[in-house]
Write a structure and sequence with these properties.
Strand content: 15-25%
Helix content: 25-40%
Distance between the termini: 50 Å
Largest sheet: 4 strands, mixed
Shape: globular
Length: about 350
């Protein structure tokens, strides 16, 4: 959790997580949907899935070896989703093992201490060698925690408190008066922007259609309202009709807009154009997902959704409170898509 947000933000999520999964065995045995639901709001849902997979593998390993936890770096690195910093951090924090770490705070401290002219992302081996060299093998737990705290509270990204830094006499960036130049940033690539058409599809029972994403990528395993990217020159209504036909094998009538919203990820920006739709024909099939379900709007909170969908659900509930009953009638197959349908 701390790899993706600050302590003050993640603390309530951590408490909620520990209440739901107080030990490794509980997490290993939990339904995957529950794991994603408890993680909801943090993003990077692949981390939640891998955390559960790691718990399951550790449970299996403990049953075979009789040892509750691995003590070797290679064993931790073999678990899904763990990189060297996380694995070394676990070993040094939990077992006081002499393993160096290299999180964002540490990279910033080292870049300034040695005035490194190369972005940390492009000089990984060099930064690891510095971290290994500096590590106090007699007190690795305390040293790593102190190094992270130094970056979090003193050697901060903006306005670092150099006057309070215990390493100020040895800091090359401070000596040169160039602290604000480090760490050197890599050139940013342009962030792609996509428009996504989304259909909130109703049937005659006032249920909406949702589908579960495949277990891959950052949002794998989450539920969502179906849709997809708009093609060049394509009307958004046509996008929704095409995507629902290709992904779910259904035909829909696209009605009024429900909400328009923007959402930014680290690697892309999306604009969601959400329309109300009515199912016309076809049995929904998960052609590009794990499963599909017709769900009452009141039951949507039981399913883990990506963050942007919470605004869609809120807008949907507002609209539903004022909707005319006749809107929910499904059009007969082959009829003209006159919207809204009369009662």
């Amino acid at each position: 959790m701390l790899q993706q947000t600050q302590l003050r933000v993640m603390r309530p999520y951590w408490r909620r997580w520990m209440e739901a999964f107080p030990d490794r065995a509980t997490l290993a045995a939990a339904p995957p949907d529950q794991v994603l639901l408890v993680w909801q709001g943090l993003g990077y849902y692949s981390r939640a899935r891998r955390l559960q997979q790691a718990a399951q593998q550790l449970e299996e390993r403990a049953a075979v070896t009789g040892a509750p936890w691995p003590q070797d770096l290679a064993d931790w690195l073999a678990l899904p989703g763990l990189g060297r910093t996380t694995a070394a951090g676990i070993l040094s924090s939990a077992f006081d093992a002499p393993e160096a770490i290299l999180d964002g705070n540490v990279k910033r401290v080292l870049a300034r201490l040695l005035a490194c002219p190369t972005p940390p992302a492009r000089a990984g081996a060099l930064f690891w060698s510095w971290s290994d060299t500096l590590l106090d093998p007699a007190r690795p737990r305390d040293f790593n925690q102190a190094l992270m705290d130094l970056g979090a509270t003193v050697c901060t990204p903006r306005a670092p408190a150099c006057e309070r830094c215990p390493w100020r006499p040895w800091c090359a960036a401070y000596a040169a008066g160039t602290v604000d130049r480090y760490p050197v940033k890599a050139d940013r690539r342009p962030v792609p922007h996509h428009v996504v058409g989304v259909g909130v599809v109703f049937n005659e029972r006032r249920e909406v259609l949702i589908d579960q994403r495949l277990d891959e990528g950052l949002l794998g395993g989450l539920w969502e309202f179906p849709g997809g990217k708009q093609e060049p020159g394509e009307a958004i209504e046509a996008t929704i009709v095409r995507e629902l036909r290709e992904e779910l094998a259904i035909e829909v009538d696209v009605a009024e807009p429900l909400i328009e919203l923007d959402h930014a990820y680290s690697h892309k920006r999306l604009r969601f154009l959400v329309h109300l739709c009515r199912w016309r024909s076809g049995v929904p099939r998960p052609l590009a997902s794990q499963q599909v379900r017709w769900v009452a709007v009141s039951e949507l909170e039981r399913y883990p959704f990506p963050a942007a969908n919470s605004r869609i659900i809120a807008a949907l509930r507002d609209w539903l409170a004022a909707a005319e009953p006749g809107w929910f009638r499904v059009a007969p197959a082959g009829s003209s898509p006159v919207l809204p349908l009369e009662p």
